[in-house]
Amino acid sequence: MELRREAVSESIGYLIIFGLILTGIGLITLYGYPLLMAQQSSANTRNMEETMIVLQNDIKSLTYQLANYKETSLMVNGGSLSLYGYTYTPEQFNISWYNTISPSTLTSYIFTPGELRYFSTNDNTVISLENGAVIEKPLAVNGSFMLANPRWYLDGSTDTLVINLMNLSTAPGTTQILSETGVGTVRMRLSNIRMVMDTVNGGSSVNITYVALNNQTIMPDGYGVAWKAYLTDPNNLGMTCFNTFPVLNCGLNSINNIIIKEYDIVVETV
Question: Which domain holds residue 162?
Fold first, then answer.
């Protein structure tokens, strides 16, 4: 009786091809999919960095160009975008100096800003728009850096220090926390402006104290490292800073005048 081997060969070939296909799918699942997800997560973070800078420009239009309101549509992927009012802020600024009228009396200006914060669930990264700066930091560890600087400057010709403070909050009587994922719209308007102008006693310095207030587990040093790098940069203010985080103390000598402008910005929608 003659055996037919064609069917056997065809079955073996089919099994080999099927095995190769399954092996390929397994390798893609094991190595390719995590790489693809990592690239997507990185792309989401880069997109939010650019979005935060756009929102920073919106704030500049409201405060320096006195626009009525600014509205930006955005896509929030890979995490959530939240507004934290001043009662939930992770930090506080205390600006102090001795003026010429009362050289023995210390004048202090205490400010607690709100912030727009993006939290990436895959990268464990926080991107924050707060006090006019865009800051990025890893979660639950020390360290942060500025993606875009605030508009603080020193006029060397008159030795005048100008500090612009941005306070983000919701409308009075509403919750101080708003959150958004997916497609959303951030609408902001300028509510109020406060200004302090003073002449500094020539024998004293202007001091800025930064304090990380809360969330010490997930943000142990707040954004202190980023602010220290900005304040000590000679291209910015060139201050001298000493830190024992969560407290950062910075000083600047030879200042004749100080101007502080605080802008209250209401975030109506996120």
Answer: 6-269
Question: Does 1 map to a domain?
Answer: no
Nearest to 52 by CA among 69, 72, 78: 72
Token couple for 69:
């309101």
Residues paired with 142 in a beta bridge: none
Q: Per the domain annotation, does 152 fall within a domain? A: yes
What is the number of structural domains in the chain? 1
Q: Which amino acid makes up residue 63?
A: T
Residues 71-107, buried b or exposed e (16+ Cβ, 10 A)? eeebebbbbebbbbbbebbbbbbbbbbbeeeeeeeeb
**Alpha-carbon gap, residue 121 to 78, rounded angstroms:** 6
Q: Which residue matches tokens 């006693």? A: 201
What's the CA gap between 265 and 238, in Å, rounded? 28
pLDDT tens track, the chain, 270 positions:
555 555 556 667 767 777 778 777 776 666 655 655 555 567 788 889 999 999 999 999 999 888 888 999 888 888 889 888 877 766 889 999 998 888 888 999 999 988 999 988 877 889 999 999 999 998 878 889 999 999 999 988 888 999 999 999 887 766 667 777 778 889 999 999 999 999 998 767 899 999 887 655 567 778 889 999 999 999 999 999 987 777 899 999 889 999 999 999 999 887
Is 127 within the bounds of a domain?
yes
Residues 6+ apart with CB under 8 A from 138: 124, 125, 126
Residue 68 domain-assigned (yes or no)? yes
